[in-house]
Amino acid sequence: MPGHIEIKQELELGEPSQDLLDWAKEHINEDPDTKCQLIEEFREMIYSKGECNSIRTDDAFLLRFLRARKFCVESAYKLFMNYHDFREENPNLHEGISIDLLDKILEYDLIRALPYKDQLGRNIIVYKWGKWVPTTIPIDEFLAATKLIAELGILEARNQILGAVVILDFNDFTVQQALYLTPSVARKILQIAATSMPVRLEALHVVHNSWAFEIIFNIFKPFLHEKMIERVFFHGNDMESLHKHVDPKHLPVTYKGSQPEYDCKDWVDGIKKNATILKEISLLGYKIN
Predict the structure, then answer these.
(1) Alpha-carbon distance 129 to 123, whole Å?
(2) Domain 1-289 classified CATH 3.40.525.10?
(3) pLDDT digit string (tens) for 148-163?
């Protein structure tokens, strides 16, 4: 994995490097000798079962699900079904949703896709729950933005292979905010993060968690399976604890790291200008201005 820190305010849409492919072969069973065969087997399973009206079945789309489930076709199919079931159950999270939603999230500094990777080459996404104003950004908009950012991240082969790290920052989070996070909302968040999207969430780091956070964690806990719980780490205000997992060279000064505070303006602007990205998300039902 990379030894230097590269600042990159754009999605990496190219083919994965040979180093990444070698890592994928060892860790997620992506064997170049069998990959095409497994994609075809996966597609045939979708057609033969006929259990959903799939939005896409091209190689690139199916590969996302296989990578997310380490090339186990049966598990990838289950994830594929979960993905489509979630879309059908929650059309408001993509139908009519514009890429401009990211501008609103940026304005309130709620979600940040950091422009550099962690020490293992993984994307880092920061959620600042304490800055969320539910009356200004309804929970469905927050969920829609979370899903959109996940869909954008999945466009990167690197992200499909290595997965991502998420930091949940609960600084200044209040009981009044917690009241909006009902069991139904908790379930949707976990569906986006783990069970209904072809994402590889490798670690979830909770910082500045207070007693107000405990309220919502008790709501989330029934929906967390054992493997997910093993990937959740609580650090409170102890940034040295966080540094045991994410090297401070790959963190902003907010978390006592060495990187400056970057906003996502250039990242969002780049997405809006990239015809390939816009075409990809339009195929998923998003509104392109």
Answers:
(1) 19
(2) yes
(3) 999 999 999 999 999 9
